[in-house]
């Protein structure tokens, strides 16, 4: 080929043979095109057709020459941006070629070639926006850490120091007995550091500091989660059950030894047939008048205590929940201290203990099954804060209803529903740290001819991780709030706080599940290797959505609490109040649901705090309102209320979800308000905007159904979420650095070996 | 209390003390109410107030008496449905009481009591709709199994027979070396049964039956998934790489021994720094003219072969992908057979093998890292189907472009993208079977006074599991279709089939991830115990979303393929065609987007096949159209095409998703059309409706944004999804029984020990 008429075909010939876009059919399209050009001479056509004969491909070096020719041509002129520009240039700017433009454009169309895209194939190392992007830190990381840690910084730092010691190196044995032993040793070290008894009265060696106790649970969760759960079982469940359900004589006798781990124990509530519905447990504690003892008994196999932490190997006693029977009468569920093993760790007579065996995770915790065969314990072993047996052998309680007494007892144990979501949050932070730091250095693909690009520069990768980063920050402030509410609770707030804690437990643990799933996938094959720790984080926290209350069941409870609050709110309104409420609602509708607002896509509006808060509050109210109405309609229509609640279960989950999201958003904005440092404030605001908008995006179906937003607005929100992800990317590494997780805890070679 | 005026307060007194709804504040409400009744005498007030004194609760037996009184009253009359009915009845139908109705209703409001709900508390064992529901089978399970198995039934039954033998009892050791050994033994049994070489030419001992090979992969997946992957590495990746990339001399030399497992081998493509972007691998194969050999070399640690199955312990050879270098020129990626170990299993000189160590799952597969230090192999070890080195030491290939040659090579290996999603599907079926059968027997909670209810009767539980049940059936038919397309492929269809297989691989493996997650949570604590097998199913399939192509990357490829098809469709249209297309689109809009259609909530319409197909097709076209337009706009606006593709990555995922959902729905409906048995047809139709509507529900944000549906319709769809779940419940157990998974494979004590 030496005529310009022929060289203009070079790009097509090259593309036909080189890339994997053109198929046999497209070769045919090209040959029809060549054959039917009246401006080509027969011998030119013949020559060109010979070059697209599938049976006789060009040689590899010929192909390479073509490419070089094209590349030189493109390099010679800045102005070549389309395929036709290239053709004109190859023709030595032959004027007649210009007139062929429509023909060539039709050809490109028929071949499905995007002309600008093709030109890139020939450009050397193009500097694209995507490849030029990277990590920049625009705020003081240490300052952000101190905002997160708040007043708990000293205890957090102490725990970090302890778990960074050499003796806390991770156990890698797959032998669960080796692992359990190691976890027990770690617990002993923590006890020696006076971390276990932090919440107990000072009188019994404790720190009387519940806030510190929660901070310890959370910080320990950067390390092994079996350790956290074992720690929680011993010092939280076992110790706190004595403290919350027992009286002075029990504290005196046990608390100090529990706190030093000299007396390892269990919390034996769940039975094989009763997990969520613990009210229905069947283990019995029968009072014996003659010798003032109780007989603890497992009436059948499905009433055995199951999943009991510390039971399989290390527990010497247990707080056992059992139905109290006196003279054949059932006095409801009460709690009793029952010895399981002697000091030599022999299992006592009448006790059968089985090992729950291998689990998906938390294999450093020795969960077991306990059966009691007419085990006799002294009367003083009844934890008698809420009910006693008097000298005459009669039952006495300031709370006459068995139900209410049981729920009061459970209420005192609600702390677990704060410790677990905080532990879950720490695990999510670890997973995100690993995924984001890895993605910042892992390179894969890149612009044609350019070097490969960190995968964190890909929009989809950002989309996968950054909404979780924002949500983790949001939940952090949400859980700080729940903790504060719990610590400073007044009696009349207990129901609300219990519901809030139950809800946040579900919200945080589900978020951890999702965050770790995405983190694993974001790390690809490396994420699958146990050494990189997402394995343990993910499998250990898997059960967090189930224990301390199954999340779905908890969400139903939260929703029922919201409904009952809602009814009271309406009930307590007098006529004037109702008018005001209706007026308020109308105002909301007028100000937020007018066509200007529902279609407002201004950037300032979409990023506006008031818009976010209004949308979340509106959604919460409307969903609650609609669930209440629907329930009433079903029951008024003659449905049994049990059936009616079943019909709306799905809606109830949304009631709880909308409530929790509103609380979390408010707390995030409150935390931002309280932030003094301008750079920290700016980055937190960006995160909060991403949290708000990505939740709205997730719920856009609802907002559109309701008419609160129109499609034009939800589309703009999707774009804004993309934009916020892109904008956050430079600071992403710093934002996980601000979690300040000890290196020795992260320990993943994919982020440490660089 | 003996006057009727006082007994009417009994329900309030009882409720105040018994349940956990009334708080301190509500006690006050009640006492204000009592104090301000002008129809109560002072001593009556005093008496009543003494009964709600928080400091002096009633005794437990008093409370019990109150309850009995109320229960007797309610039992005496069918007509008592509200709290006020009860009060009237307690007053001996005192006429004056009737006039107090507004007062009491206000009180109930203020206390937030839902009157009908309260009455239920006092009813004995109410027979509710929820508790009376249960398992009923309305179709012939064996017939449905035969519809699922189709022509592959004989091979499926053979595999089931083999894996049900005693020697296939699951390995429970946590020692990965014990586990790997067991898996190898299992593979050997399968090889002896001529299952491994099923796809190889008969000439070399094979069955020449690729359809059977896929059915084997899928059926084996009811058993241990390490076995499946080990099997796939040996007979699929290793054996098929020889068959697809090699020539007769290689078949002759290796295939028979590969098929009998006398020659265990590896497929060494992925490198530490190149997973998704395999085109960029850096291992070199340098041709030595003098002795006609290649030197295989790992230039640096990040170019080592990683995650290679069969490498750590058992592989004796590997197909190694490396850049071919001749005289300093790079001829792109080619494949070579490289020995790793001698017959005594000693690692050969120049080879370094490391163990990938513990993984989240698949620990029965010995994944390893391989480094080559100038390893010399003979010229004949080059797999030379697509490129050869001639006698003069020159490179020759019928495919001149290195890129295209490489992708052609990869294209021959696409079978893995059919085997993996089918294996994933089987794992999802196992998980659902365990979760649904357990939920059918697990009872928790129930109506007041009634017995506990199987958790599968709860709407939320149905919502969690049944859409996945429907989707698993849908994907089953989708994957049957892809398999058929692959087996009967024509060359010009290859690109489409490759994209389809890649997409279905992502679609199925993500679905398995989600299905197993939900199955685990649905089984609560029992789901966490390894013995119940969701652990292994979940953790083993976790990597399915990454290997054989990272799902997110595959979805981008699928979307690019759809875009290029879309461009060609437009390109090839002449003016007349375009007019027709526009007319078609307009017709769609007229017929489907008129106010009647967008707001149509008729049950018949919502369940209608045409509505489903139209909605899925419409969505697919619109999303594709909009992505194409957006891309063009970005590129026309001057963005580099690489950057432009980055901007739309999120939309690209939706393009692929909408395409796959449409294909799957069509195949499901096609399968239903071909079903003769009426009962099977009916149940499959119900499942298909649930699949269609739950996908629409999931995408309702999009449909609302687009205006294809209005809120009234998407709300009706949500209700219909609930209804379909409820309607499916009786047949749910039979529907998982129809998967016909061997008992010995399911093996979960929660469903076998009953």
TrEMBL record, chains A, B:
Residues 612-750 form the Acyl-CoA oxidase C-terminal domain. Residues 411-560 form the Acyl-CoA oxidase C-alpha1 domain. Signal peptide: none annotated. Residues 266-375 form the Acyl-CoA oxidase/dehydrogenase middle domain. Pfam families: ACOX, ACOX_C_alpha1, Acyl-CoA_dh_M, Acyl-CoA_dh_N. InterPro entries: ACOX_C_alpha1, Acyl-CoA_Oxase/DH_mid-dom, Acyl-CoA_Oxase/DH_mid-dom_sf, Acyl-CoA_oxidase, Acyl-CoA_oxidase_C, AcylCo_DH-like_C, AcylCoA_DH/ox_N, AcylCoA_DH/ox_N_sf. Gene3D superfamilies: Acyl-CoA dehydrogenase/oxidase, N-terminal domain, Butyryl-CoA Dehydrogenase, subunit A, domain 2, Butyryl-CoA Dehydrogenase, subunit A, domain 3. Keywords: FAD, Flavoprotein, Oxidoreductase. Belongs to the acyl-CoA oxidase family. This is Acyl-CoA oxidase. It comes from Flavobacterium arsenatis.
